[in-house]
Amino acid sequence: MRSLTQSTFVFRSEHEADTDKLGTLLSTYLQPGTVLTLDGDLGAGKTRFSQGFARAMGISEHVNSPTFTIIKEYEGAGLPFYHMDMYRISQEEADELGLEDYFYGAGVTLIEWSSLIEDLLPPDRLRITITQEADQTRVFHLTPYGSPYLGWCEQMKENGYLHDGTDN
Predict the structure, then answer these.
(1) Whether the predicted model's global pTM rises above the 0.85 cut
(2) Which residues, in sequence order, are CB contacts of 36 under 8 Å at separation 6+?
(3) Residues 59-78: pLDDT tens digits?
(4) For the chain, how big is the Rg over CA atoms in Å?
């Protein structure tokens, strides 16, 4: 049984280069079947993070939000990248897309607006929620579900990139 309390790690981004750095850090851990979920208000930086993350995966194509296409597929340097946006789709419609093929497939899946399909998400994933502060700083809250993702976050914390909210 899963713990009812999840550890959450924090990454602060004061510039787009910081956001790209988080994408680069995460890209070093990727393996087939990696699932990252991404939530935040409109304008929080979800697509900007997705672009930096894709570049870190070796994708040279322009990556934009798949709001109307729902799913875009890219070929990364080592793994395929599946970029999804659930903003305009109901959970029932999403259930008919065969998302499990992506979640448990050979690539890396990043889902914007994932909270809209919460019941369809795999149990093991890295949840990323972005909040924005008044000074335009973005705060990335990383909540790992499953031991691989917890290990990633703990290692990034040990290396000084993340903190757990109790650190200053």
Answers:
(1) yes
(2) 26, 53, 108, 109, 110, 111, 125, 126, 128
(3) 999 998 887 789 999 998 99
(4) 15
